[in-house]
Amino acid sequence: MSFTIVEPKLGGLINLIDEASQDSRVPYVIVGGTASQLNIANALYKDYGLTLEDLSKKVTPYFRPTDDIDMASKILDGREGIKDFRNTLIEISNRGYEVSFRAEKSDNCFSGKLRYAKGQNGEARINFNIEKATGFSKDYYNQIVKRSHEIDIPYKGKQRVTANVIDINDLIVTKLDGLVAGRQKDAQDLIYNLVFNEPRINEGYVLNTIRTHFSSRQDVLLSKYNEMKILAKDGKEAILNLIK
Asked: Residue 162 forms beta bridges with which residues?
């Protein structure tokens, strides 16, 4: 099953993650495709006043469906931190979620996935697999976690979706890295974010981050960045017409 952010199942899972982290010693950051959706939804709410309920009534190709939630974090208390977060997730499993958990850490950093799927008993299941941190340098990984921020978007009535999300500029950098590595679906995320989040993109930061933390492949990343900016500029009018 794949979902977009306008669907309550994905929004509900995001809220459960946020709630689970509040009492744990493991701060989390949503990254990847779900973060792309959240950053776009945040921009559409802030700039155009569109709630998730409003967007659910529109055709939304800018929300690429996903069947999992990519996460990053920094474990503050070693194994005890992992155990605490695991126990918090298990604590919420009585809300219809079956939780499975596997952990492996590197330099006190971790990355992982949460997946909304159907268990054998027909209930939803959260798969939370913590794996070794990404191929980014430790310094940049920590920078991503430090620069993340909370997004709070209304859905319907008093319902909201709240999450700690990767900063839009770091999302651009990481999506560029994914695209260069062959993840073609990252091109869609990049183009829509370059259009909808244009006022929030700090090009100086993006360029400096690429040169500082991706020096061995900066030329190809910078070339791809320029290519994506051209595609976003050419498609901007048509993309903005989607929200009218």
From this structure: 152
Q: For residue 18, what are its two tokens? A: 């946020």
> How many Å apart are CA 244 and CA 241, to the nearest integer?
5
Classified as helix, coil or strand, 73 is strand
Q: Is 219 exposed, middle or buried (0-12, 13-18, 19+ CB in 10 A)?
A: exposed
pTM to 2 decimals?
0.85
Per-residue pLDDT of the chain (244 residues; tens, 9 = 90+): 678 999 887 888 788 778 777 766 566 788 889 999 999 999 999 999 999 999 999 989 999 998 777 777 665 445 565 666 666 666 555 555 555 555 445 544 455 555 544 444 444 444 444 444 456 777 888 888 889 999 999 988 888 999 999 999 999 999 999 999 999 999 999 999 999 999 999 999 999 999 999 999 999 999 999 999 999 999 999 999 999 8
